[in-house]
Design brief:
By secondary structure, the protein is an all-beta fold. The protein has a domain of 74 residues: Immunoglobulin-like, CATH 2.60.40.10. Helix content is 0%, strand content 47%. It is built from no helices and 40 strands. The protein has a 4-stranded antiparallel sheet, with no helix packed on it. The chain starts with 14 loop residues before the first strand and ends with a strand.
């Protein structure tokens, strides 16, 4: 293990991924496909002028696995990296795309493939396109996976200020099977765009028609050969008010595209298109929340046939904006209270909402508060809170710099976040499914006497009992198998007895850890379902 870090249990001192003293910029984070995470960012620590791309990998406990403060992943001599995008492929490799150059007129878009150690797997980065007459610059870099590699998207910026969306396909071997400089989607211009896989090695491309208030959205599916799959671009939100400030997309059933956006009247709307370009969710009728408030910063996840949306909302008793949620069917029917359900009430300034899926159809919503700090709250599928109160990733001094934050599901019902602060520091934190912050492996064990827990029956063929000291209230119960995989278990307290549900555990011997405010008690449990 090259580095050393660990999820902090102190919100006033969150885990430091990289210091801002070297000059950091945009940050991204993704899952490593197992139980760890990758973080990437731009950094000009080398010469104080030009940006390079750095990254770090973390295991489930928050231990840094690469060079401390981040490993150098991309450098181009006499050039700065203007933008980058990172993605994990279906084969488990990392694709890293960059736009770099010595100036606006001299930029290259390159892509490379890295292994889990951050080592380049090709002889050199592959150049996808470069600036040159009539292309003034490159921008808005994005990627999405295919079965044999990735599809990249970017803007060509032309002399005079107009722009156009381009896509290119790259294989795991570094080949570019589409035409040179990629495929320019006809009449796809102006606002930001999003990419989603179409389920057949092509891509669904959704873009905003302009930057002004009320702009609409359009979509085109580009097939695996690099050509339009539809006769013409499709208006994604036909018949509905246009854009009002923020949006996001995610995949629906059968590779359909789902869009949520804040419209020009401050109301959230859902839209959806299938891979044939047919409307499956009509934005003119699919209103997330009809309440007479200003709704912004939407985020959504789909779990089976349910869509959950969170947003920031200025309705009373908000001190600026609170976090609200709603669940909808795939056809837009509201599943909770018509006006949504409050998730977090807190003091905010200009907050950003976040959301990940949790257990049993539940979710965890996040918001950056100006008094309580950047916080998370787990909600059950029926819209009731699963925790007694929100848990803070950090105190306000280390809050994210506006939207420079990423939330990832931890695979066991909790949430991991990486974010960049106003001072440039990049932090990470983990909140477990029961609301506990951080990793507790460094806390003293056995502080109440014998370290070994009493566990019965043996073997555990169903719920088992753990004996603790009278008055000792567990905060979490965790189990770890021989491979080091950590699972948070549901439990109920009955005096000095704790009834634990082993349902998530495979048969075999597991190390058991009961975390309290005073420390950690450990023992072993044999599970035989």
């Amino acid at each position: 293990m090259a580095g050393s870090a660990q999820w902090s249990i102190d919100p006033a001192d969150p885990m430091l991924v990289a210091p801002g003293t070297g000059g950091t910029a945009e940050m991204e984070a993704i899952s490593d496909g197992a139980d760890g995470y990758y973080a990437f960012w731009r950094d000009k620590r080398a010469d104080g002028t030009n940006y390079d791309v750095y990254g770090q990998r973390f295991d489930a406990a928050g231990n840094a696995l690469w060079t401390p403060d981040g490993a150098l992943l991309f450098h181009q001599d006499s050039a700065t990296t203007y933008e980058f995008s990172a993605m994990r492929s279906e084969a488990g490799h990392i694709f890293l795309a960059t736009i770099a150059g010595s100036g606006t007129f001299t930029q290259d878009l390159k892509v490379m493939k890295l292994d889990a150690d951050g080592t380049m797997l090709w002889d050199s980065a592959v150049t996808v396109t470069s600036t040159g007459n009539p292309v003034l610059g490159l921008s808005e870099l994005a990627m999405t996976p295919t079965s044999d590699g990735a599809i990249l998207g970017w803007y060509d910026i032309y002399f005079g200020g107009s722009s156009g969306v381009n896509v290119a396909r790259v294989t795991n071997d570094g080949d570019l099977p589409w035409a040179g400089d990629g495929y320019a989607i006809p009449y796809a211009t102006y606002g930001p765009f999003d990419l989603l896989p179409d389920g057949a090695d092509g891509v669904m491309v959704n873009w905003r028609e302009g930057n002004g208030l009320g702009a609409g959205f359009q979509c085109m599916r580009v097939d695996s050969s690099g050509a339009n799959a539809w006769n013409a671009n499709v208006i994604t939100n036909a018949g509905a008010p246009g854009f009002g400030g923020s949006h996001m997309v995610t995949s629906g059933p059968d590779a359909s595209l789902l869009l949520v956006y804040a419209d020009a009247q401050g109301k959230l709307r859902l839209a959806g298109l299938d891979t044939s370009g047919n409307v499956v969710l009509d934005a003119s009728t699919a209103v997330v929340c009809p309440y007479a408030s200003d709704q912004a910063s939407p985020h959504m996840v789909r779990q089976g046939n349910q869509i959950t949306v969170v947003w920031t909302d200025n309705r009373p008793p908000a001190s600026n904006r609170d976090l609200y949620m709603q669940r909808l069917s795939l056809t837009g029917e509201l599943q909770l209270d018509t006006n949504g359900v409050q998730v977090i009430h807190t003091n905010t300034y200009i907050p950003t909402a976040g959301l990940v899926a949790s257990l049993n159809g539940g979710v965890i919503g996040t918001i950056d508060g100006s008094v309580d700090g950047y916080s998370a709250m787990r909600m059950n599928a029926d819209g009731t809170p699963a925790w007694t109160a929100p848990t803070a990733f950090c105190t306000p001094a280390n809050n994210p710099f506006y939207e420079e934050q990423v939330q990832l599901a931890d695979g066991t019902g909790g949430v991991v976040s990486f974010w960049r602060t106003s001072t440039g520091n990049i932090h990470g934190a983990r909140i477990y499914a029961n609301g506990d912050l951080g990793d507790h492996t460094g806390m003293a064990e056995g502080v109440h006497g014998p370290a070994a827990l009493q566990v019965f029956p043996v073997p555990a063929t169903g719920p088992f009992t753990v004996v603790v000291q009278e008055g000792e209230t567990p905060r979490s119960v965790q189990a770890m198998d021989a491979a080091g995989r950590r699972v948070t278990l549901a439990f109920q307290c009955h005096g000095d007895r704790v009834l634990v549900d082993p349902a998530p555990l495979a048969d075999g011997v597991h190390t058991l850890r009961v975390v309290t405010a005073e420390g950690v008690r450990s023992g072993r449990v044999l599970v035989a379902h």
